[in-house]
Amino acid sequence: MIKRFVLNTSNELRIGDVAEFLFDARAVQRGFIVNRPIHAGTIYDRVVECNGSFKKVQIKCTTKQHSSGGANILLRRNKNQLYPIELVDVFAIYVMHWDAWYFFKNTGQKSVYITKKTWKENLEDWNIFYETV
Fold first, then answer.
1. Is 46 helix (H, G, I), strand (E, B) or coil?
2. What mean pLDDT do residues 82-110 have?
3. How far apart are CA 119 and CA 98, in angstroms?
4. In sequence order, which residues have a C-beta less than 8 Å from that of residue 32 and are 6 or more positions away?
5. CA gap 50, 4 in Å, rounded
């Protein structure tokens, strides 16, 4: 288990960096090959290889908890643009205040609202990388 840490949540770029490093570490622990694009302008954050299959991954992170106890994560590149299904296969969402990963196939969804009672099948579902296209 990774030791809990305190992070200045006012710096969104740093929060994203932490989520990406945690993703890398946890994926490698599970035996996946993780590739990181060298060009910062790519639409995906990682490419995960598993059994000869490749998945393009967009990593999202939230440090905010809604008053109802859940977390709402926008799955958009910017205010008006969704991630194209052909360019991003999987969303890996790190909910920092629960220290939990949720995985979703990209179906063109705009957002996802996660509570501790919803999306249990997506919680820590690293098997999504074993699925073939």
1. strand
2. 95
3. 14
4. 48, 49, 50, 126, 129
5. 29
CA angle, 56 then 70 then 128, to 5°: 25
Instruction: Give me the sign of the Cα torsion angle 121, 124, 127, 132.
Output: positive
pLDDT of residue 10: 56
Sheet holding 100-105, edge to edge: 33-35, 46-50, 53-62, 90-95, 100-105
Average confidence (pLDDT) over 55-70 = 87
Domains of the chain: 12-129 (3.40.1350.10)
Of 37 and 1, the structure prediction assigns the larger pLDDT to: 37
Residue 61 near residue 114, CB atoms below 8 Å: no
Q: How confident is the model at residue 69 (pLDDT cuts 50, 70, 90)?
A: confident
Give 75-87 pLDDT, tens digit per residue.
998 878 999 999 9
Q: What is the residue-wise DSSP string for 53-80?
A: EEEEEEEEEE----TTS-EEEE-BSSSS
